[in-house]
Design a protein that fits this description.
Blueprint (H helix, E strand, L loop, with lengths): L1 E6 L2 E4 L4 E9 L1 E12 L6 E7 L4 E3 L7 E6 L4 E6 L8 E11 L4 E5 L3 E6 L1
Parallel strand pairs: 2-11
Antiparallel strand pairs: 1-3, 3-8, 4-5, 4-9, 5-6, 7-8, 9-10, 9-11
């Protein structure tokens, strides 16, 4: 079994900062990509930022220059440093990982989500 456990969400004023963390645990053989998606009320889930095991990053245009994704491969943990937060960043943020379990089967895994609310 694999678990992705997020932490760090909360309420912040516009212009403020938050740091999200997500640790993967369980019967993991290897993790390729980790990162973050978000879903606002009434909208589809969208990519925020992802990072490969080699450190290659991809960001949504809406967060470039404000958010930074990083990871600690030794700890199977991914982080999202969010700065210059805007009310439109309000959403449930989901941790994501593309990984192989010890059975050598690759698949997509998701955390339970953490709420980020930015007040104006």
């Amino acid at each position: 079994q694999v678990q992705l456990v997020e932490s760090g969400g909360g309420l912040v004023q516009a212009g403020g900062s938050l740091r999200l963390s997500c640790a993967a645990s369980g019967s993991i053989f290897s993790i390729n990509t980790m990162g973050w998606f978000r879903q606002a009320p009434g909208k589809q889930r969208e990519l925020v930022a992802v990072i490969t095991s080699g450190g290659i990053t991809t960001y949504a245009d809406s967060v470039k220059g404000r958010f930074t994704v990083s990871r600690d491969n030794a700890k199977n943990t991914v982080y999202l440093q969010m700065s210059g937060l805007k009310p439109e960043d309000t959403a449930v943020y989901y941790c994501y990982a593309y990984l192989a379990r010890t059975t050598m089967r690759w698949g997509d895994y998701w955390g339970q989500g953490t709420q980020v609310t930015v007040s104006s």
